[in-house]
């Protein structure tokens, strides 16, 4: 009888552990711990500086409204693969990626994939920017507080997450090219993982 109870309790413990979702704050703690171990940032490679510590964690819960008036909350991420990009208008690598992002929207459409850009600029400035540089994402303006307080991003710009249908971050990377190579680079990074998630 004791053996049966032990097996039952073990099964419960294992099932509880397997459903644990790592929260965003846990990922940030891991990131800060990893960063403290690096004493000379000038010796870091591009690859070593990537925010891999955020892969596998849940998107943080937040609410925002796009410049078009669309609500962004937890429901926005449920049931869809989502690309989230953090940017600002005077960031040349950020701007250089836009054609590549637009090609992803054209390739995948908006039925199974969502596209969110969180910008540091004011809404009016983003509107004016989009007149010159069309970008078919949902745009959140005045994102500085959101970027600092919710996401605590310290890796630089542009910064991109790929989020799965369960709101888990499956890719996180920063930086990029500031010329035409950015278009191909962003697609080469994202397409294989998007294809995998959409199967």
Largest sheet: 5 strands, mixed
Shape: globular
Mean pLDDT: 86
**What is the class in the CATH system?**
Alpha Beta
Order of helices and strands: HHEEHEHEHEHEEH
Q: Name the CATH superfamily assignment.
A: Glutaredoxin
Spatial gap, N to C terminus: 45 Å
Number of helices: 7
Helical proportion, percent range: 40-55%
Please give the radius of gyration in angstroms: 19 Å
| Oligomer classification | single chain
Low-confidence region ranges: 4-18
Strand content: 15-25%
List the domain count as a whole number.
1
Would you identify the CATH architecture? 3-Layer(aba) Sandwich
How many DSSP E strands? 7
CATH topology call: Glutaredoxin
Sheet with the most strands: spatial strand order: 5-4-3-6-7
Category by helix and strand content:
alpha/beta
């Amino acid at each position: 009888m004791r053996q049966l109870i032990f097996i039952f309790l073990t099964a419960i413990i294992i099932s509880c552990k397997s459903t644990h979702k790592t929260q965003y704050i846990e990922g940030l703690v891991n990131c800060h711990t990893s960063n403290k171990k690096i004493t000379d940032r000038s010796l870091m490679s591009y690859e070593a500086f990537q925010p891999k510590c955020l892969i596998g964690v849940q998107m943080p819960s937040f609410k925002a409204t796009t410049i078009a008036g669309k609500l962004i909350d937890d429901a926005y991420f449920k049931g869809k693969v989502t690309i989230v990009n953090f940017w600002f208008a005077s960031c040349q690598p950020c701007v250089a990626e836009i054609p590549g992002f637009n090609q992803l929207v054209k390739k995948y459409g908006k039925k199974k994939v969502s596209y969110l850009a969180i910008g540091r600029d004011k809404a009016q400035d983003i509107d004016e920017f989009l007149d010159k540089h069309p970008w078919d994402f949902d745009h959140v303006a005045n994102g500085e507080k959101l970027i600092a307080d919710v996401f605590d991003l310290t890796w630089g710009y542009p910064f991109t997450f790929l989020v799965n249908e369960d709101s888990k971050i499956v890719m996180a990377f920063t930086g990029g090219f500031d010329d035409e190579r950015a278009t191909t680079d962003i697609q080469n990074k994202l397409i294989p993982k998007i294809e995998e998630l959409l199967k």
